[in-house]
Hints:
Layout: H1 2-26, H2 33-40, E1 45-50, E2 53-61, E3 69-72, H3 83-89, E4 94-98, H4 116-129, E5 135-140, H5 142-153, E6 158-164, H6 178-182, H7 188-191, H8 198-208, H9 217-227, H10 232-241, E7 259-264, H11 273-281, E8 285-290, H12 297-300, H13 302-314
Parallel strand pairs: 3-4, 3-5, 5-6, 6-7, 7-8
Antiparallel strand pairs: 1-2, 2-4
Amino acid sequence: MNYLTKILKIILSLIVLLILAIIIMFSHRDIPLDDLKIKYANSNSSFVAVNKMEVHFRDEGVQTDTIPIVLIHGTGASLHTFNAWSDRLKKSHRVIRMDLPAYGLTGPFPDENYTMANYTAFLKDFLIALNIKQCVLAGNSLGGAIAWNFTLEQPSMVTKLILIDASGYPIASKSMPIAFSLATIPLINKLLTFITPRFLVRSSVENVYFDSSKVTDLVVERYFNLTLRTGNRKAFVDRLKTPKDTSTYKNIKYIQQPTLILWGAQDLLIPVENAYKFEENLPNNTLVILENTGHTPMEESPLESLAPVISFLETSP
């Protein structure tokens, strides 16, 4: 009996030492916002007060354009994911993009409410703060869900809709970023708020690309550093724990705006089958499937994904 007790004590001691080693190796302090601004804000960046948040956004291009293009990123990303698109589109359009609450330099919702209703309310307040009465709305993944939900709520404010691997329908992911999975596991998700291994971030980004060789060290560094913005790690967990709306997608068929459905053929997170669900239900749509592309076409295949967007923008409403 004494022998078993000693063995158990040794095992417990080893477990405690392992946990301490993990904490020492992979725990990271939050990066001060001012330090992140130096690296991830630029001369085109601005901050606007919306619902007790200082929202990071960029408003670029042709300022006389009365119907700007508004770009909305997905979970864990930031406005930087649209860099390549913005560089091209701003030559002939006004282009606005923001860091959504919970991500980038904007940081968490003060009330920690990550429901879709709160995100669409935020988008309305953001557009009003910028005096935007109408826009072309484009969103990827979570941003796509925000875009089509907002269009249902505020149809007069949206002239065209671009859905890029958008969420909304019930899905059966073929593969999911490990950070997404861990964020839904009790206790483990608590650890994610201060233990953030860089390899976990790299693995999660590579998971949503088809060609993982395109995931550069610079891309990983950006995702990693912005994750460490004060409050973002807890917000990431809080959002993924938020119960999903399981019925609103039934209203997609009521969207009348011309809609471009843009999808990566090799998207494992929201498989291409979902693109055909949007195509079936949206009465006025154009569907483009991009080969050799994953969940974030605007970042992984910017030139190939932007070509149908430009064509879509040039067509009459």
